[in-house]
UniProtKB/TrEMBL annotation, chains A, B:
<keyword id="KW-0436">Ligase</keyword>
<dbReference type="Pfam" id="PF01996">
    <property type="entry name" value="F420_ligase"/>
</dbReference>
<keyword id="KW-0460">Magnesium</keyword>
<keyword id="KW-0464">Manganese</keyword>
<protein>
    <submittedName>
        <fullName>Coenzyme F420-0:L-glutamate ligase</fullName>
        <ecNumber>6.3.2.31</ecNumber>
    </submittedName>
</protein>
<keyword id="KW-0630">Potassium</keyword>
<dbReference type="GO" id="GO:0052618">
    <property type="term" value="F:coenzyme F420-0:L-glutamate ligase activity"/>
</dbReference>
<keyword id="KW-0342">GTP-binding</keyword>
<feature type="domain" description="Coenzyme F420:L-glutamate ligase-like">
    <location>
        <begin position="10"/>
        <end position="218"/>
    </location>
</feature>
<keyword id="KW-0479">Metal-binding</keyword>
<dbReference type="InterPro" id="IPR008225">
    <property type="entry name" value="F420-0_g-glutamyl_ligase"/>
</dbReference>
<keyword id="KW-0547">Nucleotide-binding</keyword>
<dbReference type="InterPro" id="IPR002847">
    <property type="entry name" value="F420-0_gamma-glut_ligase-dom"/>
</dbReference>
Length: 260, 260
């Protein structure tokens, strides 16, 4: 049985906050269907990157479009795709220093003071490890930790949450070598479990509800003593990505246009 | 509180089965933490497309690579990207008649009899509606229904489950018009809720465990009396997709190569 619930009653997080100190008291107040309380070994604490980034003082000035674009450029290592917007600005899907591919490099202008924007945590896996250590120190348990962000997806409408940081969680669940009912090796063999945990948590956290933290119970088989590699391994290397440069179609169109 | 559990004890599904008749008895056996049993209004029944497709007789012959490629071609309306594989075959990411963008058009060769392959359900939203009606007739409740499939994602390692069919579920949760704590309208405003439900359910269903069905409880706000538009609306139209033809990079490379 998987259970997931949002953490209620969190105070606003501001720059310099120790996130574990902010979150731990609210985690103690959780009540589960079996009457138990708090966080237990095997649970996963799922935190929106927004509060992590706020605690880590990742707010920057963005009073003008130029300042916002400079902030985005500072978080861009590679432009994956771009398209002009009706308002004259440009939508850029870029790869960030964390290896993530996101619109506007994940720079967030919502729910931050006017004239500012929020960068992603510099190293979300380290953020997750730090939160895990802090929760251990305060609560005496070492839950898994997942740091999430919300992304658009090619070919799919709507946004969904993914894992951008993780500690003590099996982010890629490897089923290689397992066989189907007919004895053949399974084809779809590596599950992005941390992304699915992020998605499950989003369903209870919700947006703009002041509930940036959730706890998922029932996945102890995906929680490890070691912090592990983190969510960095979910970001596919550019060299392996079929959509590094776009499809054969665009290439062919470029060739045809050049010859026209 | 969100709860999700796999449905145990399902018999194998074969061609021509009435899926509701197969699933309903096992759904009755579910036990929840509060002691209640079965499926209730507001629950979501999540079913892997594999068993839906098997029931709908979507197995085709695939004794040779040519037969398999013909099956894939029959499910392809547009090639989005392709790349040669080391074994001489070609990996094709294509758009299917259902509007989905998937490797090999979602044609599945695992956990099916040797020499066969399984096509996706022809109309997974209709499959979901039919299952919903069948469950209503047998159980006297109308849960939401989501039909899932497992997909790779650009730029992300690992696969994850998404919703390819839905009935009675808010597939896109619209937060437009909602405001952040500073009074500004939210940017990330339409959540692909059905995809997140699919992902949450995958965490309990697992792969190759003979557990293709799960029930998710606690999302009654996302379950509707009407069947609604279904998961078809999650498939972004080609015209709106930035990755329809691939990135500017590929285009530029094609131009440069043509001129060289």
């Amino acid at each position: 049985m998987l259970l997931a619930q949002a953490v209620e009653g969190l105070p606003p997080v501001t720059g310099g906050d120790d996130l574990a100190a902010v979150v731990a008291p609210a985690l103690r107040e959780l009540v589960w269907p079996d009457g138990s309380t708090g966080v237990a070994e095997g649970d996963v604490v799922v935190v929106a990157s927004k509060v992590v980034a706020k605690a880590e003082r990742r707010l920057v000035a963005a009073r003008t479009r130029e300042e916002l674009e400079a902030a985005i450029a500072s978080q861009t290592v590679r432009v994956v795709a771009e398209r002009p917007r009706p308002d004259g600005s440009t939508l850029r899907i870029v790869q960030t220093p964390q290896g993530l591919v996101m619109a506007a490099a994940g720079v967030d202008s919502s729910d931050v003071p006017l004239g500012t924007a929020l960068l992603l945590p510099e190293d979300p896996d380290e953020s997750a490890r730090r939160l895990r250590r802090g929760l251990d120190a305060r609560l005496g348990v070492r839950p898994g930790v997942v740091v999430t962000d919300t992304v658009g997806r090619p070919w799919r409408e709507g946004v969904a949450d993914i894992a951008i940081g993780a500690a003590g969680v099996v982010v890629l669940q490897d089923h290689r070598g397992r066989r189907d009912g007919y004895g053949r090796e399974l084809r779809m063999t590596t599950i992005a479990a941390a992304d699915e945990i992020a998605a499950a948590a989003e369903l209870v956290k919700g947006k703009a509800d002041g509930r940036p933290v959730a706890v998922v119970r029932g996945l102890a088989h995906l929680v490890t003593t070691e912090d592990g590699d983190g969510a960095r391994v979910l970001a596919r290397s550019a060299a392996e990505d079929l959509f590094r440069e776009g499809s054969a179609e665009a290439y062919a169109r470029g060739r045809a246009d050049a010859r026209a």
